[in-house]
UniProtKB/TrEMBL annotation, chains A, B:
<keyword id="KW-0521">NADP</keyword>
<dbReference type="GO" id="GO:0070189">
    <property type="term" value="P:kynurenine metabolic process"/>
</dbReference>
<keyword id="KW-0662">Pyridine nucleotide biosynthesis</keyword>
<keyword id="KW-0503">Monooxygenase</keyword>
<protein>
    <submittedName>
        <fullName>FAD-dependent monooxygenase</fullName>
    </submittedName>
</protein>
<dbReference type="GO" id="GO:0071949">
    <property type="term" value="F:FAD binding"/>
</dbReference>
<dbReference type="InterPro" id="IPR002938">
    <property type="entry name" value="FAD-bd"/>
</dbReference>
<keyword id="KW-0285">Flavoprotein</keyword>
<dbReference type="GO" id="GO:0004502">
    <property type="term" value="F:kynurenine 3-monooxygenase activity"/>
</dbReference>
<dbReference type="Pfam" id="PF01494">
    <property type="entry name" value="FAD_binding_3"/>
</dbReference>
<keyword id="KW-0274">FAD</keyword>
<keyword id="KW-0560">Oxidoreductase</keyword>
<dbReference type="GO" id="GO:0019363">
    <property type="term" value="P:pyridine nucleotide biosynthetic process"/>
</dbReference>
<feature type="domain" description="FAD-binding">
    <location>
        <begin position="8"/>
        <end position="360"/>
    </location>
</feature>
<dbReference type="InterPro" id="IPR036188">
    <property type="entry name" value="FAD/NAD-bd_sf"/>
</dbReference>
Length: 457, 457
């Protein structure tokens, strides 16, 4: 199969942000793409039914979208966040810049992003989109798939032949579930103790944001936390992360009275701004948080997992979709590099992407603890201050882990994680300096850290 | 439900060694037990069709079987192995005792063990055994299960109501697969790079063993190995562990010629003793090696996983079935301790057993490397020698990890693993002593190790 073969056909299962982006990439590389989605066209629906946790995009996403000439359009749908604003339990605000004044996370509605990417996929001549078609069966040897039209009665299967199939069907991937029947398929799904629900801070009477809209707001409370991300319409989408059971937990918050005092005690400043929080916490079903790891990602060089289907992770680093966009960008580069030879492209894709997805997946888990504790733990804050100062003194010697992950698309996640671990060990040594909390601004501290860095490089 | 309730009914899925043992325990505790097995009664079959890797039993198994008054009978079916015999590539033999002359692993055929336990289960008045009944559906709220008789046409479902259900249905557990549909079920299955096939060394013309029958024979070859376990009939069952792909691997050994030179090169001493090895390696399907970890083990205090269904592990520590027998023994103790209150028994069972199964599962993985390398790595052998000498000097201060796992049923796996890790760190320090390979017998080495041990206890 080569690019000049007019019959090279690719099926994509799932027309979310990843499936749509991949469709654009493959169509522009001259493949005939059939893009299947089990849900209805979300552009024709009023209320969005799928996963709704707000998204943040950072440099890895922009790097992929730029190559498709979509960076500016998508940025126009997003709001840049230049800092974290930590809300302490007694209402104090602590501001932490993400980086320099050009480095931002971008808050965007999953729905709007998806609509935009779908419309661009639709404009590609070689892309055919099929909505409300549920994947029913998949032959892992031939990549022949059958889909069922959700509207027709009686149900009828439609067989789709293809040279390749990409599974971009998300965290609950049907393709991945079917793959469990293939030999030697290693698989894990792990649930966190925490679940989440979404709450809203509506716009004020003038349609304006009620909190600083250029910040990611966090109310860290050790085992649980609330975060808020701005929307274009003046509202904020808030996410409450809380244990499934224990105290407090979604199970223990079982009456209006209990919820009221929980909110008053922990989130007094934002409580009056939230839209109906007591009723929502009482009645909304909690959503689980889980991560998925699989091996292989590629089957018979015919079928490949991509995005959440390959590496569903917890949302705390804000990198899930960024990692998925990077999957797409690197796949695109491999198509060119290996001149459309899929016997080479797919093994290289797996070798390159899996290690990096594993790395960011692990970072995302440990970042939860970090965020939750950062308002409370003095030692943690002191570490950050020393790191930041050292970075400003020697920007070439030390980039904080968060910067490498979010704002350095040229550093693979795996490498960022490795450097981050080395940095942690060096900072452990620095924190052992007697009276470090008093002497941390003195020159000898930074000379010592410089020596440690230079020793390993 | 109490023991005096004549209606307290328990379903067990799977009549392998674990299901049969559990049936005996529960019947003797006055429960009505329905024991279901999807296969036919293996006592009526000529050739055994299921999993056949030979088993070794050690102290944890005996400790459980003794309580059921079955230790002596089962021991009569087994052969004690007092040592490892390492066969090096040039035909040298290195002997390593497992412990003192009473400490042995016991080699037993899975089939014979199962037959013996099944017959004892059958003798219990309160046990009903149902063969060729395949589990079809399970209600996780009520523990009502439906089974299909494999012999009847057309297939008919039979509903079995019960107060509790135990899943003893092995490494490929159907109950566990159905549990994947329950909420918040964490699950992982991981395949090793190696697979295995079984080969045979037949008895000689006089019906005698052709190798020392009181030893576990190992031909360690770094990434692959052969082992041999004696059978009562004079034969040995051998297992060849080899990579699935790569070189050498089951994929690369694809012609009689290649296999011939592979065997000649790596297993010259045993090659002439093996029954038709070239043809067997060429034609027998390889069996995968995988480990399974799940959470929870218990659902609604109505359904519980036990044995391989809960913790399928790789066979290298010879502890898979020993761990399963320990599951049974500890469950039995909890029934007594909590006076048949299953709302207490099952949470305690899970809390107690899962940490230990996780520990031995991890130990089993790392033991593979240890076995494979032990003939070749001088440093590894020196460590063992120092450990052994220290153990004989101070038996109360230091039990080798292998001894704790295999011959100390009173030390939980989790604790053994933790102590083993401390020992490893101490031995790392000892191995840093300059010229340790020359001075290892000198007194100061053992004084230093003694100081290290005393520091942490």
């Amino acid at each position: 199969m080569t690019s000049t073969d007019p019959k090279a056909k690719i099926t994509i299962a799932g027309a979310g942000p990843v499936g749509s982006t991949l469709a654009i990439i493959l169509a522009r590389a001259n493949y005939e793409v059939n893009l299947f989605e089990s849900r209805a066209d979300l552009r024709k629906q009023k209320a969005y039914l799928g996963k709704s946790i707000n998204l943040v995009l950072s440099d890895r996403a922009w790097s992929a979208l730029k190559e498709l000439d979509l960076e500016q359009e998508v940025k126009s749908l997003a709001i840049p966040l230049y800092k974290r604003l930590i809300h302490t339990v007694n209402g104090e605000l602590k501001s932490q810049n993400y980086g320099n004044n050009k480095q931002a996370l971008w808050s965007i509605s999953r729905n709007q992003l998806n609509e935009c990417l779908l419309s661009h996929a639709e404009q590609e001549q070689r892309v055919n989109i099929h909505f409300e078609q549920r994947l029913h069966h998949l032959d892992f040897n031939t990549s022949c798939a059958s889909f069922i039209n959700q509207q027709e009665r009686p149900y009828q299967q439609r067989e789709i032949e293809a040279d390749l199939l990409f599974a971009a069907d998300g965290a609950y991937s049907k393709v991945r579930r079917l793959a469990q029947e293939t030999p030697r398929f290693s698989y894990s799904q792990n649930y966190m103790e925490q679940s989440y629900i979404e709450l809203t801070i509506p716009a004020d009477a003038q349609g304006k944001h009620q909190l600083d809209k250029h910040a990611l707001h966090i109310w860290p409370r050790d085992k649980f936390m609330l975060i808020a991300l701005p929307n274009l319409d003046g509202s904020f989408t808030c996410t409450l992360f809380l244990q499934h059971q224990g105290n407090p937990s979604f199970q223990s918050l079982n009456s209006a009275e209990v919820i009221n005092s929980f909110l008053q005690e922990n989130f007094a400043d934002v409580f009056p701004l939230l839209d109906n929080p007591v009723e929502n916490i009482l009645n909304k079903p909690e959503n689980p948080l889980f991560l998925v790891s699989v091996n292989p990602w590629v089957f018979n060089n015919k079928i490949a997992l991509i995005g959440d289907a390959a590496h569903a992770m917890v949302p705390f680093y804000g990198q899930g979709l960024n990692c998925s966009f990077e999957d797409c960008r690197e796949l695109s580069a491999l198509i060119e590099q290996h001149q459309h030879d899929w016997q080479k492209i797919l093994p290289a894709y797996q070798a390159q992407r899996k290690v990096n997805a594993d790395a960011i997946s692990k970072l995302a888990i440990s970042h939860f603890e970090e965020i939750c504790q950062q308002a409370s733990k003095e030692e943690f804050l002191l570490r950050k201050k020393i790191e930041d100062k050292f970075h400003s003194l020697y920007p070439d010697l030390w980039q904080p882990l968060y910067t490498m992950v979010s704002f350095s698309a040229d550093i693979p996640y795996q490498q960022a994680r490795k450097i981050g671990e080395q940095q942690k060990r060096m900072m452990d040594e620095i924190m052992c300096i007697p009276n470090i909390s008093e002497c941390w601004q003195q020159e000898f501290v930074y000379n010592k850290l410089k020596q440690l860095v230079e020793k390993i490089t």
